[in-house]
């Protein structure tokens, strides 16, 4: 079983993220993953995985299908139990389910609830003003009383993002949430996620098959292969990122590494 615990980490290792926070009070948790294993019967999905994710860092996890990306995300979210290993969070209190939120490829909105009622699902009535404010931030202020079926795919994902962020999470886990969107909507959503991440400072782990998306958003890219970390890429590019020669070169290097696995 995975040991999900709150731990005070050693701050001796200096880590700098080149970004400006508007709200440092909501900075995310540091995550330490130690000797993580996951088996399904005799099939090994993750094998002795060790990874430290700094508070407020944006990590992208790439790799071929079946390499363990989504499994890793579900283990961090405590949606599954590991076969062996530990996951620690740098918290001074018990970690609650609202501290860690997941956004999936499917927005998972309830079709019989309006958009605003989907966003504030499970929260007290006094949260409605916050839900409306957040829907305004994601560009859905004129859609709050519509049904999910009346929204486009990109708009539904915006609503799902608002729902996740209404809880002010310390960790946001993104399991290919933009995979089904068209190219322009995907770029728009990437910009929105980056903007809100910069403002709120939550730690983010993104699983994606899109190498360009990983370079666009992440501070660090982790390549998984057969359940192990095959390679790590540091993205030392200024934000907002442009498709410069350096960007394209890094994108090429990551893609080649993925294809070589």
TrEMBL record:
InterPro entries: AAA+_ATPase, ABC_transporter-like_ATP-bd, ABC_transporter-like_CS, ABC_transporter_ATP-bind, P-loop_NTPase. Belongs to the ABC transporter superfamily. It comes from Acinetobacter nectaris CIP 110549. GO terms for molecular function: ATP binding; ATP hydrolysis activity. It holds the Pfam family ABC_tran. It comes from the Bacteria. PANTHER family: ALIPHATIC SULFONATES IMPORT ATP-BINDING PROTEIN SSUB (PTHR42788:SF17), TAURINE IMPORT ATP-BINDING PROTEIN-RELATED (PTHR42788). Keywords: ATP-binding, Cell membrane, Membrane, Nucleotide-binding, Translocase, Transport. This is ABC transporter domain-containing protein. Residues 31-251 form the ABC transporter domain.
